[in-house]
Amino acid sequence: MSIGIIGAGQLGRMMALAGYPLGLRFTFLDKSKDTPGAQVGDIVLGDFMQAEDIRRLAGEVELLTYDVENVPVQALREAAGDTPVHPAPAILEAAQDRLDEKQAFARHGIETAPYRPVDSKEALETAIEALGMPAVLKRRRLGYDGRGQHFIRAAADIETAWEALKGAPLILEGFVDFDREVSLIGVRNRSGETAFYPLSENSHEDGILRLSVAPAGQPALQSEAETQLKALMEDHGYAGILTVEYFEKDGRLIANEMAPRVHNSGHWTIEGAATSQFENHLRGILDLPLGSTRPRGHAAMINCLGRMPALEPVIRFADTHYHDYGKSPRPRRKLGHITVVRDDRASLDAVITELMPLIKAAEGGE
Amino acid sequence: MSIGIIGAGQLGRMMALAGYPLGLRFTFLDKSKDTPGAQVGDIVLGDFMQAEDIRRLAGEVELLTYDVENVPVQALREAAGDTPVHPAPAILEAAQDRLDEKQAFARHGIETAPYRPVDSKEALETAIEALGMPAVLKRRRLGYDGRGQHFIRAAADIETAWEALKGAPLILEGFVDFDREVSLIGVRNRSGETAFYPLSENSHEDGILRLSVAPAGQPALQSEAETQLKALMEDHGYAGILTVEYFEKDGRLIANEMAPRVHNSGHWTIEGAATSQFENHLRGILDLPLGSTRPRGHAAMINCLGRMPALEPVIRFADTHYHDYGKSPRPRRKLGHITVVRDDRASLDAVITELMPLIKAAEGGE
């Protein structure tokens, strides 16, 4: 079975590494042979924003999936032709637009921050009046890792935020003074079987994920999040991994975003769960029985940004796993991650405390 | 860091899949692009029996290792030039010749079956008188998976065995009526750190490994085997994985063979141990700290011979992992393996009982 992956980043790379043992073959679509995916699989050189190039990939494989969220949905629909695409373009479309995404959450009674679409400075001012401050003005489309957002704390920020972001469709979101951020990663196969990983607790720095720790949820919270994610997946006849990022506030879950793909906050599942999110994504899109999502003890994933730490001091820690995506260093770029697995949370926390400064020191070295 | 692997079989493939997360790149030397290794890495097309071709590979990488045992040692030494080769050619040489191998065991006081070198029919007859029957006549070099061997149960078999094997250097080994077969897989890095996996119990069918189950040894047996393997590794300044296959008879360990490489009886470590034999081989040859060899519960590995079972019925069993090497079907050929991991031995045995017929049915289907 040959699978085409649109985008040859680290998500596609880890998908291929998980899929080879299943006897699958992988071809990526991206601009360079030196991308994380193309280093471990075949490549069709091209631009995944172009229907023409997606069409060339589709012609070489039996099934399409993607490792990037900004694939143009219309082009994808046209270009795929008879080649099935999973997760389905419809949900990708909803996830690409913060307004559509909020409306999808609302349809399933999933709480979100209050929001208003914004298409003019006047609309922004009205929205601020309605939602109050602080609030966050965001591009509806193509924002990630904190880009395309402006914080509005006081009236003076309105002008700055508007000038920075105007020209694109925007949304104002009420600021949630959350206690913590968590994410739920679930998987569904085409026949409707579902499975869910334990909630992961996520810590961001400057808008970029730094640390995920799992399991991180009380049973009631886990169960509430699973019910929500299951409804989202069933509504869309979803196949593959679907992730919802939440704010947790006073024990309530407030949905922030969804991602119709494997997710950075689930990388710990490679070593920390019986079946990784990457293998389960493949099982889902291929309509195979799903693998156990049972955690193996307690796991943490630390992102390596800008520059990788040296291998040796990291893997000196027992049960510590180094993941280098094969990318060249660049400030704040996600180059890899480190996973730690321990039987108990206390010893996991102790390792994180030792590892984190080592990882940050490497990043600051340039 | 770029690593050259001589031979692009399944062992090299699994080594590459384990090494990509460490940021390593892999180039194989083999005859076809459709080999298990070349499907997941780069390939230098050539013949690993030819010094010229090994030289081309050495020119492209920083470190050489191998996934086949029959690399011609003299060619390897010459061709490697300044490129380090691990495990060192000296131990490969000893492992390629059953007589040298027995003598290496003897130097460390490791018990083997009684044996006699055989270079004529008269020598065979004298050896039979000394060792008695049953005995096994074997080629000293290039035998594996039961090939190049003849069983001698009665005087009438002597002529047949001699006619079948004459012309190559031979060895007669006393037959060990063993209780079971076990193997110990150990690893050493270039600085001298060592680690050992739990003993695995191995069952063969028609001379080919069918099933390995681990952990399988009483502490005293484990400790005895570790002492022996450690001595072998230190004697040779060894780096990488070294495997010794034993017969166990009345609680005694009788060494049968050694393999200076990752080993089929250690494939269960991919999911069944904290660090796989493939990652630890790489850590050893790169002189990195070794990873924990701690087992995750009880694991079994079943080889798939001749034809792979379908994916779906196999992965329906929880914690069951499918490994397809990407090879084309051929009777008795090792095409893949299935690993099962369970918390307790009884439930592991129950799954083996269900899975084995399913795997054999697939093989018999052609």
TrEMBL record, chains A, B:
It is an enzyme of class 6 (ligase). Keywords: ATP-binding, Ligase, Nucleotide-binding, Purine biosynthesis. Residues 102-286 form the ATP-grasp domain. ATP binds at residues 98, 138, 143-149, 173-176, 181, 204, 256-257. It catalyses: 5-amino-1-(5-phospho-beta-D-ribosyl)imidazole + hydrogencarbonate + ATP = 5-carboxyamino-1-(5-phospho-D-ribosyl)imidazole + ADP + phosphate + 2 H(+). Pathway: Purine metabolism; IMP biosynthesis via de novo pathway; 5-amino-1-(5-phospho-D-ribosyl)imidazole-4-carboxylate from 5-amino-1-(5-phospho-D-ribosyl)imidazole (N5-CAIR route): step 1/2. GO terms for molecular function: 5-(carboxyamino)imidazole ribonucleotide synthase activity. It comes from the Bacteria. Its EC number is 6.3.4.18. The keyword Transit peptide does not apply. Homodimer. Belongs to the PurK/PurT family. Catalyzes the ATP-dependent conversion of 5-aminoimidazole ribonucleotide (AIR) and HCO(3)(-) to N5-carboxyaminoimidazole ribonucleotide (N5-CAIR). This is N5-carboxyaminoimidazole ribonucleotide synthase. It comes from Natronospira proteinivora.
